[in-house]
Amino acid sequence: MSAMEHGEPAEPAAPAEPAEPAAPASPAKPARRGRGGPRSKTMIGLYLAAPYVVYLIIVYAVPIIQGFRISVLDYVYAAPGASVPQPFVGLKNYREALSDPLLRRSFLNILEFLAINVPLTVILGMTLAAVLAKLSRMKTFFRSAFFVPYVTASIAVIGVWYFLFSQGGLMDHVLGSWAPNPSWLVNSKLAMVVIALEVTWKQLGFYVLLYLAGVLLIPDSLYEAASIDGAGPVRQFRAITMPALRNITILVTTLALIVGANLFAEPYLLTGGGGPNGATMSPALLIYQKGVEQGEPGVGAAIGILLTLFILLVAGAGAGARRLVQAREAA
Amino acid sequence: MARMRTFTAALTALTCTALTLAGCSSGGGGGGQARSGPIKIWYSNNAQEVSWGKATVALWNKAHPSEQVSGEQIPAGSSSEEVITAAIAAGNAPCLVFNGSPSAISGWVKQGGLVPLNDFPDGVSYIQGRTGATVASEYKSSDGKYYQLPWKSNPVMIFYNKDMFKAAGLDPDHPALSTYADFEAAAQKLVGSGVAQYAIAPAPTNEFYQNWYDYYPLYIAQSGGQPLVANGKATFDDAAGQAVADFWAGVYAKNQAPKEKYNGDAFVDKKAAMAIVGPWAIATYAGKVNWGAVPVPTSTGMPADQIHTFADSKTVSVFTACKNRQSAWDFLKFATDQANDGTLLSMTGQMPLRTDLPTTYASYFSANPEYTLFAQQASRTVEVPNVANGVTMWQDFRNGYLKSVVFGQQPTSQWLHSAASTVVSDIGK
């Protein structure tokens, strides 16, 4: 539970004045109080936050607004100085995007991806963090080992997975006649599963780190008390570790949803640009194909806006479900 | 409170500035005079063309001290079309790019990135005189203007590995590959004997241009020289288109071609016994593959001298970002004159798009007889149709092809029928 939840104020209501022996009638006193008052602190806070606000505006707000603007225009990447008409077309780009069966397929693919990736990330992340926290030897080695894929370039990781799952690759050799036919990456039922596993494995180190930070904050005394009461490791994990990591799980789930919904590199590189019959096509890859490769920035931008709404919807649904569970628990 | 207002005002001003900047889609000046001066050009990044580019630029610079040309390889990207599209939008395109793709021209014209070569007094006469009016007309845009100079072609043919053919018991010097049945029998022998993992390995990926190296050359041959689109209508939803689709579907169904992307060149790595490609690839086969080449097959085994194929040509355009356009045009004529076309041929093995190719460079072809076949084929080539939204059209065609032909998830006749209406809708947008 955070300090805020304990009812502690965010900042002291009346900061203690420094012990100055000066006479109360000193003329400088009111001015000093003015500079150190709540309004002055608000101003300092605003000034300190300003660079980040500027960053947010330039890096996020402007592209989103520009993306929306492009999505309602017959937009062309015009040469500077060229007189190219870019008329307002209303929702035409959205209609065109939504009428494309590949777009519907891409959103379904992402749902399939998230259904594998997010639960696996949460379960493996939490479990591994709990195990890593208990290790007494080779802690640093294992913590680094899980983090290595995360900091390795995607192209290198994808190369390794291609070696494992390509036709005639290591997995096919290991499985022999049990190997799937068509092979993993050209199998419309398995290609997205392989990608979901690859992404989970690659990102896991980061999420383990988040969970580990949470696990290390749980007081040992709780485990000791539970142990005295006869709780085994599984019971301790369920009764102490999992509830204590609830806020981190919310963070991990939200991050995994956002990162997963923007899936691009793996379908592009591992399955040759969308897999068999679009089985691994993702909305982000479709944005690239439409907006960059095919010179239809309006349609690409419309898909981008739809993807943003989709992420908000999925993340919002997750938040709603959590609130519901918390409300039931409180009741 | 005053400071708060100042802060809010500053933030608002900053936001407005950012939004105004975001709202700017174009601005500045392009500079449109046909004047002379230094220029920048881009050429392809394969070793042979880089050598040709450097030699040609050096020759020009020696004779034109006030119109120096700086040549660079086209910047790296997933495709040169993407790089050029981005350069046009950014306003930093060079004066000339010796690597234009006819399928991308309509998009670049729409961007306002290309100068019509008709603007130069001798523009049309030079293009038609060099390439021939009939062939040149394929490269004309819908407004009747030339935005590209047809530069060179790479007639797509079937390359085969003579050593692998011999090992599989096939005639390495005169292989029977002219009909679909011949091809199928050879493929069965090559794969069945274990000599090759695959008979042929066109990329089964979904880049928009991949059909230029599997379906399209065979369709052109089977149809007697039809482009994919003619007079605003799809041509392929017919018996010829069906025959080609069924041929490739059979190859994939029998696992004679991979359904998965091969990282590398399967022909060079001897994983595939055949390749479908143009003569530009010969340089990469030198010392690695004992190759031979034959025209692409047709269902009935059309005589070789009647077979058409995909040109896979490259064109050169003058970009609107260029200030010294007269120098750009003069350099373009210099780089594509008879002498420099001869240098291109001898250094790269690629066929300049000239009317008189076999006779003009007769000595080259007698010294390099393996290229004669390509020179003969170069007179019977067809390019991608010069239509609006060409890339979108090819992408939709590719998506359907993969689903139906490569992965067998839709009957080929159904795909051809729906692709024909999609193509018409794409080019009519």
Automatic annotation (TrEMBL), chain B:
Pfam families named among the record's database cross-references: SBP_bac_1 (PF01547)
Keywords from the UniProt entry: Signal, Transport
First and last residue of the signal peptide: 1-22
Highest taxon of source: Bacteria
Gene3D superfamilies membership: Periplasmic binding protein-like II
Chain segments annotated as coiled-coil in the UniProt record: none
Similarity comment text for this entry: Belongs to the bacterial solute-binding protein 1 family.
Protein name per the record: Extracellular solute-binding protein
Species annotation: Catenulispora pinistramenti
